[in-house]
Amino acid sequence: CTLRELADLIQDANPVARDGRTRLSFALVYPSREGRFAMREIGSLSGRQGAVDTDGRRTLRSFHFETGDYMDVAIHRTKSVPNTR
Hints:
Layout: H1 3-13, E1 22-31, E2 37-46, E3 70-77
């Protein structure tokens, strides 16, 4: 699946993620050779459903996602700036 497909599933389950002022950041968490977990950021998408983002087209396979790996997803919400005019 692609990052956009994952984002759409998250937005279906979490109303906060649907807001156009949000960004979803994805990271791959995997066991390192030293026996600890390592984390690598793999993409960031707009919270708007249907938005076209270059990261959104990438598949989990292209990031070498394997069984036993984890996905870390952060929902960043930007604060709206009050209109001073």
